[in-house]
Amino acid sequence: MNKLKLAMRWLLGVLFVLAGGNHFVQPDPYVKIVPPYLPWHLELVYVSGFFEMALGALLLVPRYTTLAAWGLIALLIGVFPANVQMALNPELYPTISPVALWLRLPLQGALLAWAFWFTRRDDVGESVVTAGTAPVPPPDGRLPLARLTKRRGCLLAGLGGLGALLVACGQPTFLLLRARFRDRPVPDDLPPNQADDASRLERTEVAEVWDVPAAPAEAEAQMRALLRRARAQALRVSIAGARHSMGGHTIYPGGIVLNMLPFKRMELAVEKKVLHVGAGARWADVVPYLDAHGLSVSVMQATRNFTVGGSVSVNCHGWQHARPPMASTVRSFRLMKADGSVVRCSRTENAELFSLALGGYGLFGVVLDVELRVVPNERYRPDAPLIFPAHEYAERFREKVEGDEDVTMVYGRINVAPGEKTFLREALLTVFRRHPCPPEEVPALVSPGYATLRRTLVLVQIGSDAGKRLRWRAERLAAGRMANTYFSRNQLLNEDATLYQEGRPERTEVLHEYFVSPDRLEDFLAELRAIVPRHGGDLLNLTVRDVRRDTETFLRYVDRDLFALVLLFSQERTPQGEERMKAMTREMIDAALRCGGRHYLPYRLHATREQFRRAYPQAGRFFERKRFHDPDELFQNRFYVEYGRR
């Protein structure tokens, strides 16, 4: 009997330790079962988890077995309303059978009986020790509460204090530790005959991936030969750089992928503030090069990982305030056409190709190198952040930044923590202003630091409502601490996108971007508040930027001054996850269209042809001109196959 009881004691103790630990590893399921009439749902989950672990461990220590057993009985009674809550509301737990929910109730009785077994100490072979006497078994075999020793009372007080401390700092600590533990990136090693992009959802068999030589003369000669070979073998050619698009824009199945990354030579005309740069150069190469000359990029994305050629092909925009997309900063570029000829494109020379290839997604030829206007690298300082209801965003934006020439860079964040009063309901606006100083006082181009913490604060949100609440609190705190700190322009542009990329094989990140006018921003947010939860979208971030009207490109996405909403989702890398994302994306595109806006094209190709044509009514003419300049349709990719090919 003693051996059986010992084994059952260890089994119960270990079960409670594991169950309590799970409260910290996966708190969200427990939060959902806390009865709504109780306050502090997350805190109660952590408190109960702590005591499950502590009492389970104490149950294994003979000296404290009886005390732990009574504690477990009290705990099981205390959490019983949560089990009743589940049984009475089965619609809240669609993945669990209603029968199973009701069976949990008598199971609690079995657990109570199991714990009660250990309130009797005679079978364990132990006795109660009183001061100055030999061990004497208690008359009824149980340890009455009145005979708890002072040491055990101190133990209880200590456990309570430790529990209170754990609740106070347990939420951020355990959420961050869980995110760090899960952050085990596994690289997707591709064989030579396969290609993919940043979505990690476009793995495709290709004929070859061809690296462009770094030397310009050699590169151009070999590229012409490659294009001749492609035509002779009836192969299509796609153009790739950093591959940060997400819809196969750099891939054609069975085709040749032109890898432009080696083609990255740079020359700078300092007095003219003009940079001549190879299409394969990343902004990570460009920013420090310009920084050494006291200059900076005029318009680029929020992170440094993209190539110049890729940025030209999507006509990128950034968070530089009151600026049109990148095309406005391009003086000219050289383009290799399908016949191997190289032409210079500018506003006065081959002007049609200039307009078509900027934002042309690599369909008109290979952009070889670009002349960019650059600007001085200056010192900036952020204002104290503004935090306000999201429906006031457009009004607050106008009040804070419109007409102020010292405002240089601006971004907004919208709270993505789920909840009727939180999800897309609160906004944070961060404004950087120019603070002139001598060149030697401009801050050096150094890392902003806290890379691991910043990465963890993004990953902590994946699949976790509590993690999203933590991220928002951290965002508000960081914005406040950043105020009155000086930055250089180049520091702000030198952010690394890999900090925020999920590396686990089972999930990936997917970007969306939508453009709406300021007066329709709240209408669009109201639609998102319904669409995203309805599809179970795991939204990690929503940034708002302002973009000025584009008058340079043919397939333009900003035909007037608009807000850009950049949404980052976490998605399962499964067919089911892809179908859910497609259905949600199409509803969001419809919502943007209803609000007089449109979606951005470098991301997942989930829009229907009809949605695409409604958003970009000039697309028909755009593809006609593509076939005029490339009559054999040599340059193709998945984007063209989906929306352009007849």
Describe this entry's structure for a reader.
The chain is α+β, with helices and mostly antiparallel strands. 41% of the residues lie in helices and 17% in strands. The protein has 19 helices and 20 strands. The protein has helices spanning 2-25, 27-33, 41-59, 65-88, 98-117, 150-182, 216-232, 283-291, 308-314, 351-357, 393-401, 451-459, 465-482, 489-493, 521-534, 575-594, 609-615, 619-629, 638-643; strands at residues 194-195, 204-205, 208-211, 237-240, 256-259, 266-269, 274-278, 295-297, 330-336, 342-346, 366-376, 379-382, 386-389, 407-414, 426-434, 487-488, 507-516, 538-547, 562-572, 598-599. Strands 12, 13, 14, 15, 16, 17, 18, 19 and 20 form a nine-stranded antiparallel beta sheet that branches. Strands 6, 7, 8, 9, 10 and 11 form a six-stranded antiparallel beta sheet that branches. The protein has a three-stranded parallel beta sheet with strand order 3-5-4, with no helix packed on it. Strand 1 (194-195) and strand 2 (204-205) form a beta hairpin. The radius of gyration is 31 Å and the shape is elongated. 40% of the residues are buried.
